[in-house]
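Researcher: Please predict.
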Amino acid sequence: MSVGSPILNSQSDSERFEVALNRFDEENSKDPNIEVVEPQSWPRELLYAHRLYAWVERLAPNASEVLLLAARSQHICRWTIPRSNYEMTRAGYLKWRNELKAFHARKAGEILREVGYPDEVIRTVQALNLKKNFPHDPDSQVLEDALCLVFLQYQFADLAKKTSDEQMLNALRKSWNKMTPGAREAALELPYSENERRLLTLALESW
């Protein structure tokens, strides 16, 4: 499936899509971690899912249904597998990330099957959850662009406060390397603090 591929063919398909989104939101609403975005308090993963979905819609106004489903389920129930369950090493981090992706794909598949999606659609959504065909599949690239932009817009500031400049520069360069020119342009238009702008400028100077 690629950006803009038609999947919705009937009212029942449209309803099924909305039911799936609502089920993803229902699961993410169980996150005990709360973030406040005035004037509302959000379960963290519910907020993340909506932010990621919004970026996908902005980057790809004609986004395919599978891409939108993958965006809304990308971090589904992430809090149930905490980083603290794994060794605080590079190997432990990678194992955590890989097991998270497999968990998200499995959980998304269970919900999609529950609401009546065919196996072909489920497999395609799961491939996006797993980043199997990145960067060759256009949908996977849009999703990666959106993930990087959510990081830059909403997570960069907090991470910079508790991370060394060297580590932060490495993270910024890795994100930049995965993004398309259009996503980079959008990233440069985001509002940054003086420190964030300094770090981003340093990262791109040697990129």
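Model: Residues 78 and 100 are 7 Å apart (CA to CA).
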